Amino acid sequence: MMGFQNTTPLEMSIDNMDILYQAATRWMQLTYNHRNLVGDGCTERTNAGISDYGIEVVERMNELGILISYSLPQSISNCTLLNNHLFKNVSLKKELS
């Protein structure tokens, strides 16, 4: 199962998610240490969370069935999360905020 530790391969186009899916990407971490277009990373001084673009990315990942990888749960919902640091799948059912 191929995946990425952040969403920088998407650049600024959600359409790239389809290309990555066709190339066997099945999980992706939204951010890593540094802020990207999807949201703040874990080493940022502030925590603004997921951006508007990030919400679109999460929605597209849900449509394609791409798992969202995380190590510390954030306010992400209506998606299947893959905690690949604990090797455990978790599914949350809440409204996107």
Annotate the secondary structure layout:
Layout lengths: L1 E3 L10 H8 L2 E5 L22 H13 L2 E3 L9 E5 L4 E5 L5
Parallel strand pairs: 1-2, 2-3, 3-4
Antiparallel strand pairs: 4-5
Structure description:
By secondary structure, this protein is an alpha/beta fold. The chain has one domain (2-92). 22% of the residues lie in helices and 22% in strands. The protein has 2 helices and 5 strands. It has a 5-stranded mixed β-sheet with strand order 1-2-3-4-5.
Give the gist of this structure.
With 97 residues, the protein is an alpha/beta fold.
What are the salient characteristics of this protein?
5 strands; disordered C terminus; alpha/beta; 97 residues
Could you give the order of strands across the largest sheet? 1-2-3-4-5
Q: Helix and strand succession?
A: EHEHEEE
- SS summary, helix count: 2
Tally the structural domains.
1
| Uncertain runs | 85-97
Shape: globular
Termini gap: 29 Å
How does the major sheet shape up? 5 strands, mixed
